[in-house]
Amino acid sequence: MLGRLSQVANTAARSVPATLAEAIAAIRAGKLVVYPTETFYGLGADPSSESALERLFEVKQREAGKPVALIAADTTSAFSIAREVSDAARRLAEVFWPGPLTLVMPARAGFASALLGDDGGIGVRVSPHPIACALAAGLGHPITATSANLSGEPPATTLAETRVALGGRVEAFLDGGTLAGGAPSTVVTFEGAGIRIVRAGAISEQAIAAALGGGHR
User: Fold this and answer.
1) How large is the average pLDDT for residues 194-213?
2) Within its chain, how far is the Cα of 6 from the centroid?
3) 74, burial (CB in 10 Å: exposed 0-12, middle 13-18, buried 19+)
């Protein structure tokens, strides 16, 4: 028993990066990183790595066919993943980014199916949390933004909760203290000249309508 506890402790010690640079290197190496966002802890992987995405689904026990959204360092990086960006998307980004609003836009070619909806859309937001932003900036492109918990369980607001849920299956943990929690990001997709709210969240439908001048449907 003591030997097992010692093994777990050693694994945990090895899994904690001393610096942000080590977390970035871990993601580049195809590993998974727990990191803080403006709401909950996220599970970061390199979205350009098929094997990293497969591992993320395995670790989270996430249902296949449920797309994973991304976090970008800034608006330019976020929009670079889209085949086209509507005027409505630009307006919402201007008003609500950085913040808990995920925009689903037509993806450029080459993205893994694990990131795409049935219509070929890909979700992305810009987080105001400095660690999330720095992680994506250091990688040079967006990182996965799924919550750092087992699918179906509550999202985590402390690093301790992520350790209980994911344990030694994640290589690196970045501590952001106790996070605000609350509602997750609101998810919006664009349909013609209008929009559709895919998931209600931290930003209300009324606030979105006001940002668009009341012209959404």
Assistant:
1) 95
2) 32
3) middle
